[in-house]
Specification:
CATH superfamily of the largest domain: Bira Bifunctional Protein, Domain 2
Order of helices and strands: HEHEEHEEEEHHHHEEEEE
Strand content: 25-35%
Number of helices: 7
Radius of gyration: 18 Å
Number of domains: 2
Strand order of the largest sheet: 1-2-3-7-6-5-4
CATH class of the largest domain: Alpha Beta
CATH architecture of the largest domain: 2-Layer Sandwich
Distance between the termini: 29 Å
Helix content: 25-40%
Bound molecules: biotinyl-5-AMP
């Protein structure tokens, strides 16, 4: 079946403002048709103490990035590319909790708006039909030993067509429209994500931990996996995660490692 033609119009910010039912997340919306990286703009705003919940969003990024300086690819007007400014009452070692609540919020919103069940791949990927549909890049600003601000950068493939993906991504990446076989308006999806983020962030600030729910949505657990970071590659049984999202890996020699970051390959 040929891929469907999908809607790739610029984001309708007036529609977002009309639909959005949050009290602070996304209420200060900073829109760019084209920008280098929304995370960079958000960092500058956070350093100038922009309001909590300020959202920088773009229809196109010329220097969108993932972890370790990797490129985030997105055709214009096809995706959600955004960075949220938060000042959480957390220690730097707990900041992964923000990635956790945002990935859960995206799972909730995709279910609500597109009726699809997304999964989370440790530590920061969103999957649909086993392929990467989104990624989160949480960056921290420190003041001494404390968190001064956090920027949660979210890239979500909404109406990206298969033929728009560069060759090296075609087998491993997908979009909501590809899985659903039809495009979806980005504005209601964006609003649903922000509403779920706000609810979850309010609970996080009250001391709730998202770990148990997050673990239940992880595609990674209970599987034999390979985890690579720039220093080493380990293989083992993904046993569980702790409150701060660290992964417990049981190695073949019986020892257990606690991993904070890395790239996971699900084996067999
Ligand atoms: C991520 O990094 O997955 C985090 C991506 C965050 C992007 C957002 S967009 C808004 C905000 N502003 C930014 O500049 N960044 C954030 P990582 O886990 O390191 O994955 C990066 C890898 O994902 C790349 O090396 C590619 O293999 C793959 N990739 C790149 N673009 C993709 C896409 N559109 N869909 C699926 N996979 C992609």
């Amino acid at each position: 079946m040929p891929p469907p033609q999908v809607e790739q119009a610029p984001l309708d910010c007036a529609r977002v403002k009309a639909l959005l039912k949050t009290s602070y997340v996304g209420q200060n919306l900073v829109y760019y048709a084209r920008i280098g990286s929304t995370n960079d703009i958000a960092r500058d705003l956070a350093q100038a103490r922009a309001a909590e919940g300020t959202l920088v969003i773009a229809d196109e990024q010329t220097a969108g990035r993932g972890r370790l300086g990797r490129q985030w690819f997105s055709p214009p007007n096809s995706s959600l590319l955004m960075s949220l400014i938060l000042y959480p009452p957390l220690a730097p070692s707990q900041a992964q909790r923000l990635t956790m609540i945002c990935s859960l919020a995206i799972v909730n919103a995709i279910q609500e708006i597109a009726q699809l069940q997304a999964q989370i791949k440790w530590p920061n990927d969103l999957l649909l039909a086993g392929k990467k549909t989104g990624g989160i890049l949480t960056e921290l600003g420190l003041h001494g030993q404390s968190l001064a601000y956090t920027i949660v950068g979210i890239g979500l493939n909404v109406n990206v067509r298969a033929e728009q993906m560069p060759g090296f991504l075609r087998d491993i990446a997908t979009s909501i429209a590809q899985v659903r076989h039809r495009p979806i308006a980005r504005e209601p999806l964006l609003c649903a994500i922000l509403e779920h983020v706000e609810r979850r962030y309010d609970r996080l600030r009250q001391g709730e931990t998202p770990a148990e729910e997050w673990a239940a949505h992880l595609a990674t657990l209970g599987k034999w996996v390979r985890v690579s970071d720039p220093r080493e590659t380990l293989e083992g049984w993904a046993e569980g995660v702790d409150e701060d999202g660290a992964l417990f890996l049981r190695l073949a020699d019986g020892s257990r490692r606690r991993l904070l970051a890395g790239d996971v390959t699900l084996m067999g």
